Amino acid sequence: MPELSYxxxxxxxxxxxxxxxxxxxxxxxxNIEGLIVRLQEKKVVIQFIAxxxxxxxxxxxxxxxxxxxxxxxxxxPDEKAVIPKDNVLFVDSIENxxxxxxxxxxxxxxxxxxTTHRDLSREMRWAGLNVxxxxxxxxxxxxxxxxxxxxxxxARRGDGVVPTLDSALLKRLKNTYGDxxxxxxxxLYDYFYQLxxx
Length: 198
Prior knowledge:
The protein is an alpha/beta fold. 39% of the residues lie in helices and 14% in strands. The two termini are 13 Å apart.
């Protein structure tokens, strides 16, 4: 039975497989306390800036968890996005909107939280918004251990021992991938797949 594949490890599934939006919100291991208050101010935008795989979306989802009634949209390259007319929005990958559409969005919104691969603060300020920039990067071994341990605990099947990641493995992942958590999780997915003995 596929659902029992990881039973010998006392796990329900591979801890480093894909998570849905609710799971990512629940498991987000980030500090966004000050941002919850900031997002309630008028004419403010919070931008989470980083390259792929660093945790921008995780931060945005964690913040959205405190504003569940507000619209969350994910934008993709070359897609004709339909942007709601709301005055508070959560927008993942805002750089996928063309410049003039971004400017219209800035002027429409009283509060905005976004992810972006590049700093858009100049154009945001030009549109009259107060900008809070968060450069997302996890480089501490302790933080990586918290993130990955939480994933393993979420996959736990029952009482008893579950696999752990030793500091040597965490250091190697950090040295290999820098702050690219997605790349680390991809390697850990393969590691747990082999660990189960398949």
